[in-house]
Amino acid sequence: MAKIGFISLGCAKNQVDCERMMYRVQEAGHTVCAAVAGCDVVVINTCGFIDSAKAEAIDSILQTAALKDQGLVGKILVTGCLSQRYQEEILKEMPEVDGILGTGSYTEIVPAIENLLKETTVSEFGSIDTPEQETGRILTTPEHYAYLKIAEGCDNRCAYCIIPYLRGKYRSRPLDNVLYEARMLADSGVKELIVVAQDTSRYGTDFPGHKRLLPELLRQLCRIDGFHWIRVHYVYPDEIDDELIDVIASEPKIVKYLDIPIQHCNSDILKRMNRRGDRAFLEALFAKLRQRIPGLVLRTSIITGLPGEGEAEFAELCEFLREQRLERAGAFPFSPEEGTPAAKMEYPDASVAQARAEMVETIQSGIMEDHNSAMIGKTVEVLVDGYDEEYGQYFGRTYADSPEVDGKVWIAAEEPVSEGSFVMVRIDGILDGDLSGYIVEE
C-alpha cells in the first residue's frame, strides 16, 4: 500500500471530485496524506478554465516536480480540466509528469495509481458525457460546511466558455442519490450545505419530463435534520421561476443569498455570447427577486473586455452596477480560450480588459463599503469558522457570505467559541474591509 497526496485546484465542483478520488484511494487500502512530501504518488487535480487557472495548475505541477527532483515525492499524476484540455501536450512538454487522467476518467484513480507504482505510464480519457458514478468522499472543507454537487457538465454553451468541451453535457445526479449523500453529510456534522453545479437551476431538466427539480430538491434538503443553512450557487438567470423563488423565500433553512453569474448587461454583447435575456430582463429579475425574498443578498460575476465591448458598452455596464448595487460581485478580464467561438471574435486588448475589471472592482468596493456601513449597530447570526492568531480574534460569516469567495466577520469574544457554532454578533465596526463585532446574548 502506498502513500498518496492530493492537491486540488479550481472551483468547489473540482474539490468535490478530488474528495471522491481520495475516498476511492483510501477505500482501496492506500494512505491519503495531508502533505505531499514523502508521498509515493501526488495527484494534482487541475482547473483549465481560464489563463490564470492554467497558470496556477502549471505552477503547482512544477513545484511538485521540484520536490520530485529532490527525492521527496515519487510519481506525479495530473487529473482534472487541464489534463482533459491538453491531453498530448502535458506528457510531451512536462516530462516530470508520469500520468494523466481526463475528467471522464477520474473514477479510475485507483488503477491509475497502481499502474504508476508499477512504472506504467498512465493516459486515460473516458467519455466526458458518462453519468456520475456514486461514491463516498473525504471532506477537505472544515467539518461544519460542505459542498453538495448535484450535476456535472453544462448545456448553456456560452460563447466564451470552454467548460462544455471539458466536462460534457449536463447530467443531473438522481434525486435519491443526492439526498442520500446530503443525509450522510448532515450525520457527519455538516451545518452549512452549499449546493453547486455548473448551473444548479437546470437540475433535473435532462431527466425524462425535463422538469426543473431544484425546488423539490431544496424542499427535501430542508427536511434533513442537522443542516442550519442551505446555500445555492450558480443559478442561471432565465432558469429562475416562481416556484424556485417561493421555495427560497419560504424555507427558513435556505439562506437568502443567490449567486447569479450575469457576465454583462449589454444586450448586444449578451446575444453575441449566446446568453439569453438582456438588460431589461436582468433589471426586472433582480427587482422581482428582491421584492419576493426580503433580505436577499445577490452575488454575480462580471467579464470585462468581452467581444463587442467598446467604451459605450463598458459605460453601460458601470451604470448598471451603480444602479443595481449588487451586494457581491467579482470582475474578471476576458480570457480568449482556444476552441471557443468568442476567441475568434474581435475583442479589446488584454490591458484594456484588465483596467476595466479594476474599474468594476472600484465601483463594487464603494457598494460594499456602503453595505458594511449600514450593518453597523445590527445584530446578526454568524457561523464561526475559526480563530486567527495574528488578529487574536475569532472569525466567521453571516448568511451573506459564502466561504472562500466573500468576506468575513471578526468576532470579539470573552470566552472560547467552538468552530462550527452559531453565535449572535453585534456589528460595531469594519476591519480591513470586513465587518467586526462582539458576541451578545440571543
The average pLDDT is 95
The biggest sheet, with number of strands, parallel, antiparallel or mixed sense and barrel status, is: 6 strands, parallel
| Distance separating the two termini | 51 Å
Query: For the CA atoms, what is the radius of gyration?
Result: 22 Å
Count of extended strands: 19
So what's the overall shape?
A: globular
Structural class: alpha/beta
**Main sheet strand line-up:** 2-1-3-4-5-6
Uncertain segments are: none
Estimate percent helicity: 25-40%
Task: Give the helix tally.
Answer: 13
DSSP strand content: 15-25%
Structural notes for this entry:
There is one protein chain. By secondary structure, the protein is of the alpha/beta class. The mean pLDDT is 95. The strands form 4 sheets. The protein has a 6-stranded parallel beta sheet with strand order 2-1-3-4-5-6, sandwiched between helices. Strands 7-10-11-12-13-14 form a 6-stranded parallel beta sheet. A 5-stranded mixed beta barrel has the order 15-16-17-19-18. Strand 13, helix 12 and strand 14 form a beta-alpha-beta unit. The protein is built from 13 helices and 19 strands.
